[in-house]
Amino acid sequence: MARSVANCVTLLGHGNDDVNPGPDCWAPSEREGGLVRRQMKTHSAYTESAWQRDEAQRLSGRRLTCPDCGSDQRYAPSAGTHPDGSPRHYRACKVCGFWQEADGTPAYRVWQSAHDCRRELGPAETFTCEYCNQDVSTNSHPCGKYLRPDEDGYDCGTCGDFQGIETSTPFLLTGSGD
Q1: Cα gap 25→23, rounded to integer Å
Q2: CB-CB contact of 128 with 101 (8 Å)
Q3: At 20, is the pLDDT very low, low, confident or very high (cuts 50, 70, 90)?
Q4: Is 70 among the domain residues?
Q5: What is the count of structural domains for the chain?
Q6: Phi, psi of 161 (to 5 degrees)
Q7: Separation CA 134–CA 146 (nearest Å)
Q8: Distance (Å) of CA 127 to CA 114, 154, 159
C-alpha cells in the first residue's frame, strides 16, 4: 500500500542501519530485494520563494550545495509537472537522493533504479530516451529513473519491462542518517 511522502519522517537510503520509519512511512526492507531504511535529518521547509531564489542563483552560474550531504555535484532546483498538469518545483540531489518539494512538505529520499535498457533499432535509427535523456543509437544503453519512496517501480517506456526494487542501485553518498 502506497503511503504519503509528506507524512514520511524517515525515508529511503542505502546503508547498514535499520531504523524504524514509523507507521506512515513505506518500509522498503519489508519488500523483496529490501532497501535499507535510514533516518534523514530534519530540514527546514522549502517554499516557492526559496525555489525562485535558488533557481535565480543556478541561472546566474552559482553552484548550490545539497542541504543533506553537502555535495555541489548534481544538486539543483528542478521543475516539472504534476500528473494534473500543474507546475511542480522541487530541489533534488542525484548524489544522495535528497528531494524536497517547494510546498513546505518534509524532505524525502528517493531511490534510483538502473537497468540495461534494450530496444531494437533499425539501421541509422536513433531516439532520445525519455528517462535519461540520452540520444541512443545502439540496441542497449544504461538507463534509470529516480522514484519516490512510495513507488514500487515503473514500466520502462523504452524497453517495456517493469523495473522494480530489484533494480535499485546505491547513491554515491548516503546522505544524513542521524
Answers
A1: 6
A2: no
A3: very low
A4: yes
A5: 1
A6: -90, 150
A7: 15
A8: 19, 20, 12
CA distances from 58 to 12, 43, 91, 165 (A): 27, 20, 11, 32
Per-residue pLDDT tens over the stretch 55-112: 999 999 999 999 999 999 999 999 999 889 999 999 999 999 999 999 999 999 999 9
Q: Does residue 18 fall inside a structural domain?
A: yes
Distance CA 15, CA 9 (A): 17
Q: pLDDT digits over 32-45, tens only?
A: 344 444 568 899 99
Check the CA dihedral 174-17-110-54 and report its sign.
negative
Cα(73)–Cα(123) distance, integer angstroms:
37
Domain span holding position 109: 5-114+145-169
* Class of residue 151 by CB neighbours under 10 A (exposed 0-12, middle 13-18, buried 19+): middle
Spatial neighbors of 44 by CB under 8 A, at least 6 apart, are none
Length of the chain: 178
Answer for the pair 103, 48: CB distance below 8 angstroms, yes or no.
yes
**Would 158 be classed as within a structural domain?**
yes
Q: Is residue 136 part of a domain?
A: no
Please list, in sequence order, all residues whose beta carbon lies within 8 angstroms of the beta carbon of residue 84, skipping any fewer than 6 positions away: none
Q: Which amino acid, residue 61?
A: G
